[in-house]
Amino acid sequence: MRANATLTGQTRRRYDRVAAVYDTVETPIERLLYGRWRQRLWFGLQGRKILEVGVGTGKNMPYYPPDAHITAIDLSVRMLSRARKRAELLRIDVDLRQMDVQELAFPSYSFDSVVASFVFCSVPDPILGLREVARVCKPKGEVRLLEHMRARSRPLGLAMDFVNPLVVRMWGANINRPTSRNVERAGLTVVSVEDLARQGIFRLIVARPGGESDD
After folding, report:
1. CATH code of domain 5-208
2. SS3 129
């Protein structure tokens, strides 16, 4: 199955459009919540070859393991431009590439671990993207996702469904994705799901791929 080019193009244009104000808009919640969650996302991550999916403006860079080789991709050229500036400022050696997670240009079993934060709310076909993640991750590797998703509460979930089309048009992210279930549907084995906020709106998911490797 191939990615829908029209939907993927729309997503790219949305993030190109908001790239200039992305960090400014998210500064309050980044300081209040996201920063410490990112630290937990990366803490103790194993392996030297790590892929970050959806690097955005590079907000995870301060938490990269110092002895790892990081490859980081993003769909948006303008987001990547800001990520490159952040990497230079922090003096971080990272291989930044424009790429679509739905069609990763890496051989199978290329990475020891794959990490993403607030990404699969935006991928047009999240299951396709997660299958690609599973493909490029070594079978004994680890997939870590920090995601926001649909609330468990029915009233709150319905409210999120109602406003979601507007949020997507304005910001690019779906706020009502069932990402925990999508991980399983993509064939990944869920190791743990940790609620980071009430109603499970923010969760830290740890999973492992299936299959076998020659390594």
Report:
1. 3.40.50.150
2. helix
Q: Which amino acid is at 209?
A: P
How many CB atoms are closer than 10 A to CB 50?
25
Give me the DSSP letters along 58-83. TTTGGGS-TTSEEEEEES-HHHHHHH
The residue assigned the tokens 């991980």 is 183
**Any bridge partners for residue 50, and if so which?**
70, 113
pLDDT tens digits for range 166-189:
888 877 788 888 899 999 999 999
Condensed to tens digits (0 to 9), the pLDDT of residues 61-113 reads 999 999 999 999 999 999 999 999 999 999 999 999 999 999 999 999 999 99
> Which residues, including other chains, have CB under 8 Å from residue 114's CB and lie 6 or more apart?
50, 51, 52, 53, 133, 136, 137, 141, 142, 143, 144
Distance between CA 38 and CA 215 in Å, rounded?
30
The full set of domain ranges for the chain reads 5-208
Report pTM. Answer: 0.91
**Nearest to 115, CA basis, from 84, 72, 148:** 72
